[in-house]
Design a protein that fits this description.
By secondary structure, the chain is an alpha/beta fold. Helix content is 22%, strand content 32%. It folds into 2 domains: 7-176, 3-Layer(aba) Sandwich (Rossmann fold); 197-314, Beta Barrel (OB fold (Dihydrolipoamide Acetyltransferase, E2P)), CATH 2.40.50. The protein has helices spanning 20-29, 53-58, 74-84, 99-105, 121-130, 132-137, 156-166, 205-214; strands at 7-13, 39-43, 61-65, 88-92, 110-120, 144-150, 171-176, 197-199, 223-231, 240-248, 255-259, 262-263, 275-286, 293-304, 312-314. A 7-stranded parallel β-sheet has the order 3-2-4-1-5-6-7, with helices on both faces. It starts with 6 loop residues before the first strand and ends with a strand.
Length: 316
């Protein structure tokens, strides 16, 4: 059987006028696609800015427009591949359409090489307050999340936190109104990271969870104390459990348990879903199948605790 060739796919997400087309134009002008390969450029919405036809031609781009969401189907993409025979594909997606439905319709040999989400920072909080689920869906497949039109008076740390709550692996970049990149966005932590024992308040668990992943080196070797529920993964070692909390990223359907693997001699005696106060040293382990370092804990004390006042933690 002849294996079908893999075709790299570049996926651009974000709402209308968030800067998707501008990003593509800048990439073309920088010559990143002047390699002689033929690119099928699938456009799912037409914004104010258009790409110059000469620029498209010079880069061997051919545009195909999907007019309506209902037109997206496996047959459409299979037909385009058979007819156009592209070397790569770029999809500029409509931010109000179902992104998961698009992914399910793509041919298996179309491999997402890079996902890029652009966000107009001046409208982000409005979308977050009124269309949270739809807004955060834009981040799921992104390797790069670019907030543009940023200002100093915006809560950029919160923007970064909400983006990483949905997609922890994505790089988050802030482009200011003058075009400069702001690399100084840091979270103001509600706890003392230099304390002999870092006390994590119940309401601060979500912030701490994200910051440990983002800045692991700042925590390695330090002792933390926090309230959590007990989870015992299947096929675990007897001295391993996962203390964590249930977190809501955007809606009730999106609730998930977030915690850290923890080594503790008495883990086998802990009751599933019970609340405990954990005192532990932060260490690190390796992500299964990769070399990525991830947080891990070694507990010195695990004590029964009263339930948290709010069962859920939040990232906003």
């Amino acid at each position: 059987m002849i294996k079908k060739r893999e075709i790299p796919l570049y996926l651009f997400t974000g709402f209308l006028e968030s800067g998707k087309t501008s990003f593509i134009i800048e990439t073309l002008k920088e010559g990143q696609f002047e390699d002689g390969l033929y690119t099928l450029y699938i456009l799912c919405e037409e914004g104010i800015e258009e790409i110059d036809k000469e620029l498209l031609s010079r880069n061997r781009f051919e545009t195909y427009v999907i007019e309506e969401e209902k037109d997206i189907s496996p047959d459409l993409f299979k037909g385009l591949e058979k007819e156009k025979r592209p070397d790569r594909v770029i999809i500029e997606f409509n931010g109000t359409w179902d992104l998961d439905a698009l992914i399910e319709a793509l041919p298996k040999q179309w491999i997402i090489g890079e996902g890029i989400c652009t966000v107009d920072a001046s409208t982000y909080e409005n979308y977050l307050n009124n269309m949270k689920m739809l807004m955060l869906q834009q981040f799921i497949y992104a390797d790069l999340i670019l907030f543009n039109r940023c200002r100093e008076d915006m809560d950029l740390a919160m923007y970064k936190r909400t983006a990483h709550a949905k997609n922890r692996r994505a790089q988050v970049v802030f482009e200011m109104e003058d075009g400069s990149i702001n690399n100084s966005v840091k979270e103001e932590l509600p706890y003392d990271i230099n304390s002999p024992v870092i006390e994590i308040g119940d309401e601060d668990y979500g912030l701490w969870y994200l910051d440990v992943f983002d800045n692991l080196d700042n925590y390695i070797g330090k002792t933390v104390r926090f309230k959590a529920q007990v989870f015992k993964p299947p096929k675990r070692k007897e001295d391993i459990f996962v203390p964590g909390r249930f977190a809501m990223t955007c809606c009730a359907e999106d609730i998930q348990f977030v915690g850290f693997p923890c080594k503790y001699a008495g883990a086998g005696k802990l009751k599933e879903k019970s609340y405990v106060n954990v005192t532990a040293e932060v260490r690190f382990g390796k992500q299964p199948g990769s070399e990525e370092r991830v947080p891990a804990l070694r507990a010195s004390l695990v004590e029964p605790a009263a339930p948290a006042e709010d069962e859920l933690v939040y990232f906003t």
